[in-house]
Amino acid sequence: MSLSVSLLVALLGPCLALDNGLARTPPMGWLTWERFRCNMDCVNDPDNCISENLMKAMADRLAEDGYAELGYKYVIVDDCWLNSTRDAEGRLQPDKDRFPGGMAALGDYIHGRGLLYGIYEDIGSETCAGYPGLQGHFQLDAQTFAEWGADYLKIDGCNERRADLPEDHAAFGAELAALERPIVYSCEWPFYELGPHNYTAIAATCNLWRNTHDVQDHWESVVSIARLYSLLEAEQFQFAGPGGWFDPDMLIIGDFGLTLAQSRVQMALWAIWAAPLIMSNDLRAISAEAAAILQNADVIAVDQDELGVMGRLKVQQGDDAQLWARPVLPRAGDATSCAVAAVNYGDSATELSFTPALAGCAEAAGGYRVRELYSGADGGLVQPGDTITASLPPTDALIYTLTAQ
Ligand code: GLA
User: Fold this and answer.
1) How confident is the model at residue 207, as a pLDDT?
2) Is 334 a catalytic residue?
């Protein structure tokens, strides 16, 4: 790391959150990885291989099927877009067969559809799939991404010494900060670090940070991520807020593994956590029911609430029922409203009762107007001590707003 970068890192850390003006609410969009992996077989599987055609097809769906206007703007290519070597000048280059127009032209296409452009790389010597990593090329690569029009970088942590993760992420972040182009910086640093984590440094460096294993296309994977989020310590939640977010990985709603009820669980949890809403699914072949969950404007509004407060676990009832809550806008006087997610991970139906006060809503003089956001059902006006009962089918969720009056 050069002296100027060390100095910058020393000046920035450890007490400031990253303030690059970006990700003031959790980023929303679409990413190749979970659904399309490292499929490079464009000969036999031309519609599903990692290619500019796949990216353009998903950009079209985001733009034309109502996603973009709800906020799903980032179109992100994950691993396996790269050529196996850098070019003669040492620059990164895409696989020429699958990205014949080049990365800048793909960015132009995405921008032309009113969307934003995301690219994957890795802070180490190679990406997880073995393509050239950023190591040794931070400045050149940051400039290359800016020239290509990137708006978002997902930076992985394979093939990197664990001890170097903090310094290298900060050094690459300093190169991004030196660009004229604002670029969201998404990190996997805490996931690869294993722990303990210096979230002060992580939040000062990255706009979002993956802290759990890769989501897979099945229910147990969503539950395992929820169990890990249930173990976050109280002081860690404060690091989430405008400009920086915990990233529990992609939404797999619309894929093969979740029922619609389980999809409601993932959407409710991600929204209550103020998590990035980055889908990885096939938007060309998604059911209307799954699309409706992803496009529920009220649930999205909870996720995107401008207070940016990450929800906390308020009730753990047995192993399988949880209540999470976060303060949200609007205010009535000094009182905020609340969003509440009631989740059942178990195979049996259950009931979960709570009061607005328990959810953190105790102050509004006029009480709270209750609404369940999946059904749209109006739950009437309640006072802070009144009981609300969520009746939860197996592996399902309800999500409420309690709007201060
Ligand atoms: C890691 C990341 C995934 C994905 C793959 C790509 O496993 O955690 O999200 O980017 O690498 O190889």
Assistant:
1) 98
2) no
